[in-house]
Amino acid sequence: MKSTLSAVAVAAGLSVAVLGVGSAVASADPPPPAPVQGEVPPPNAPRKTAEFWDGEPVVWTSMWGGRWGVWKNGQFLTLSSNIITNGG
Questions:
Q1: Nearest 5 degrees, angle CA 6-CA 11-CA 16?
Q2: Which of 26, 46, 59, 62 registers the highest number of CB atoms within 10 A of its CB?
Q3: For the segment 22-73, what is each residue's pLDDT rounded down to a tens digit?
Q4: Among 86, 55, 85, which Cα is nearest to 77's?
Q5: What span is annotated as the signal peptide, if there is one (predicted)?
Q6: How far is it, in rounded angstroms, from Cα 11 to Cα 21?
Q7: pLDDT band of 85, cuts 50, 70, 90
Q8: 45: domain range?
C-alpha cells in the first residue's frame, strides 16, 4: 500500500512539473554580446601574459578601472588587478 501511494505521489509530482503548474515565468534580458577584440589597452596597462585562456582570447576591458580578462559564457572573467587601485 505504501509503495503504491509513493508511486502515485511521484507520478503526480512529475505530471505537475511537466505541465509547469505553479512555476513562475522567468524572463531576463540576454547578456550583451561578448566583444571578441576587446578595447585598446592604455599605456599604463600591465603586460598581457597570454593570448588565450581556457580557449578564449584574452582581451582588455575598461570595466572596474581596467583589467585583462576573457569572456566565457556571457560573463567576463578577470585575469589581472585593477590598474588604478592595484586590487580587486
A1: 125
A2: 59
A3: 555 566 666 555 556 678 888 988 888 899 998 889 999 888 888 999 988 8
A4: 55
A5: 1-28
A6: 14
A7: confident
A8: 33-88
Residue 72: C-alpha distances to residues 7, 8, 68, 84 (Å)? 42, 43, 13, 24
Q: Residue 47: exposed, middle, or buried by beta-carbon count in 10 A (0-12, 13-18, 19+)?
A: exposed
In the sheet where 59-61 sits, what is the strand order? 59-61, 67-72, 75-78
C-beta of residue 38 within 8 angstroms of C-beta of residue 60: yes
Residue 12 within a domain = no
Classify residue 51: in a domain, yes or no: yes
- Per the structure, how many domains does the chain have? 1
